[in-house]
Amino acid sequence: MSTQEQSAAATTTGTQSPDAVVVGAGTAGCYAAATIAQEGYDVVILERKDEDEAGHIACGDALKGADAFPEAIPKSKLEPAFTNTGVDHGRFEIPQEDTVLEIPVPGELAVIDRWEYGRRIIDGAGDAGVDFHYDTVVKNVVQNDDGRVTGVEAIRKGDPLEYEADIVIDAAGSLSVLQDNVDFSESTFDTNVDYSHFCSAYREIVRVDEPVEWDDALVFKPTERAAGYLWYFPRTDTEINAGLGFQMTEEPMQLVDDLKRDLENRPEFEGAEVEDKLGAALPTRRPYDSAVHPGYMAIGDAAGHVNPTTGGGIAGAAYGGKYAAERAIEALETGDFSEDTLWEYNEKVMDHFGARYAALDVYNILSTAVDVDDLMGLLAAMPGDKLAEALYSGSTDIGLKLKLESLIKSRGHWGTIWNLYQTKRRADDLLAHYENYPTSPEGLAGWQARRDDLMETVYETTGADPKY
């Protein structure tokens, strides 16, 4: 059935009763829904956008881990959206030091056409048997007397709808409205979430007349304040995703002006044509401690499944969707929709990428307490391969020779170096603790208490204000 037919098949009023409802047709939602549908269950994705706009999402378009995706939507389905597979490193521009760092990026890397990619994952989920209901805005979540989520209330073009479902999966993005409407008081679901844990991102798709010289690199550049960075990611050698991300605590238009000025001052963008503009919010925080509640799971941006230092979230969203779907299938097969049944989803996320993202968040915390010029001077003195390890693994080790070389180059920033060294030790301690994530909901409170003690040492070491 085509997506057009699927959309037309949706009724405009009344109550519907699929096995599973997924809210949001992004990466996480499509992979979760496709995984469940392939097992023969009736799955509906509710998408607030219309069919033409679905999949149109603000994104940097850089995809790390392009070689590994869950099988529910075949990679061959997505590959036509991979517009530049020749990128292999990051180019970190540091104007304060008049230098450029070339930083290798481990693993397969690609730049994609995000809208085309969005269409293709929707088609892939449709091929798996998922039913799409577009123009559908979820307004409320339904719970029974025991607190279990049993469905959602929505509206489509002014008409009320109710979806009764055995399992609801929240893939509605950052600061999901669903979470405002669920009573989590009797579950472990993480409610320690604040708008300051998120950033706003804005990007333009810019076409230039002449090929850029750095079409094999992802270009990063700090904004004038430490709260954000600019990026230039080449979809092709003449089509560039130009954007910036900044913490929601900052004034958005002032930082967008940073991007405008930088574009105007870069000779490669003279006479460039802007083809598309779009903004969004994304998490720059650790993953949710728990993203499960009876009958309900949150995935992707709605559960903090984004690398907090780079903003990369596509691969994590795909696997988060897969892991949640596997537990949804178990619940559907057994009729048990408790936290205990769903808990393994949390464990798989923490084991795959959640622990690493939590450790990386420590460096975000450090950045709020360090002078931006000192930080940029220090980065300019560090070896590029070690910076890459720190950005993507959450930890790195620098041998004695490199330590000495870095010390000589970074004279004047030694206080910051000591702070960074101490912060690295705190991040390593945190990473080790996350590797002992509990195997059941009953163990979460004790694990959180120890984690919070470790976070206190992070704040003491960095001098930063508490984030959580």
From TrEMBL:
Domain FAD-binding span(s) in chain numbering: 19-348
GO MF annotations, alphabetized: FAD binding; oxidoreductase activity, acting on the CH-CH group of donors, NAD or NADP as acceptor
Alphabetized Pfam families for the sequence: FAD_binding_3
Top-rank taxon: Archaea
SUPFAM superfamilies in alphabetical order: FAD/NAD(P)-binding domain
Name of the protein described by the UniProt record: Geranylgeranyl reductase family protein
Organism (species): Natrinema versiforme
